[in-house]
Design goal:
The chain has 283 residues and is α+β, with helices and mostly antiparallel strands. The chain contains 4 helices and 18 strands. Strand 7 and strand 8 (119-125) form a beta hairpin.
Length: 283
């Protein structure tokens, strides 16, 4: 048994494990405990499983402190970046150091986070539309903007991980579980893509739903998806550079700002509970 904690960022929920704990089979641990039907269930929590396991290693000798973040998803894959996961990592590190600033080392690069009460803002880096960076199919010469992919009109952007973004009239009117998988596995995305829907909220922002690669289903929030919505909206002239844009997934409200080509993601983080979980036997 190892000690764990459960956090969520706008409904995007994670099992958090101190990387000093011995978990030889991280993939097996995530597959077993994140399953939404048979995974971990604590006390009064209504949700079973999680959207991933964050293995966090604190390096508090730095100023500001650094935390090395590894996200293992429910299918056992490792994600290069996760916006809400990074915000959770910052909160976790801040609780142990008392610092309101945290550096987060991820496979997608080092990110800077600032805490203000229960709100955490993380620098997400520059979104990119170039074919090699998304990535798109090797024979693709130009960026993919508002093109038909498996029946859905999408634009492709990498916000730490690849996203196929589609603007629709009403995100709730689309059967995401049906339309997303063909796009997620389309030939134009050799490494797959998250599929994110967005619709205007009537106040200058957007409502969002995301089918996440690695989760292989819809999540209550996706930070890289929220950034992708605003990045594509900016590229298509729907929002202006520097605007603080509200993006609302099912789990709550996020704010995305594109400033100088760099994206910033802000929203709440909550610690739900702590406990212990068994470590699966390695095969």
């Amino acid at each position: 048994m190892i000690p764990v904690e459960k956090y969520h960022g706008t409904g995007n929920d994670f099992i958090v494990v101190d990387a000093n704990a011995s978990v030889p089979d991280r993939r097996g641990f995530a597959v077993e405990h994140c399953d939404r039907e048979t995974g971990v269930e604590y006390g009064s929590s209504e949700r079973v499983g999680a959207d991933g396991v964050l293995f966090l290693a604190l390096e508090d000798a730095f100023d500001p402190p650094r935390v090395v973040m590894t996200l293992v998803q429910p299918d056992g894959s490792t994600a290069a970046m996760c916006g809400n996961g990074a915000r959770v990592a910052a909160q976790w590190a801040a609780e142990r150091t008392g610092s309101h600033e945290v550096m987060i080392d991820t496979p997608a690069g080092t990110r800077y986070a600032v805490l203000d009460g229960d709100s955490v803002q993380v620098e997400m880096g520059p979104p990119t539309f170039t074919p090699k960076a998304v990535p798109l199919a090797p024979d693709r010469e130009g960026s993919l903007l508002e093109e038909d992919v498996e029946g859905l009109t999408v634009s492709a952007v990498n916000t730490g991980v690849p996203h196929a973004v589609a603007f629709v009239d009403d995100v709730d009117a689309v059967d995401l579980e049906s339309v997303a998988p063909p796009v997620r596995h389309a030939d134009v995305f050799p490494e797959g893509a998250n599929v994110t829907l967005a619709s205007p909220d009537g106040d200058g922002g957007f409502r969002q739903r995301t089918f996440e690669r690695g989760v292989e289903g819809e999540t209550d929030a996706c930070g890289t998806g929220a950034v992708a919505v605003v990045a594509v909206a900016r590229e298509l002239g729907k929002v202006a550079a520097g605007d603080a844009v509200t993006v609302t997934p099912p789990g709550g409200e996020l704010t995305v700002t594109l400033d100088g080509g760099v994206a910033y993601l802000r929203g709440p983080v909550a610690r739900e509970f702590e406990g212990e979980l068994p470590v699966p036997h390695t095969r």
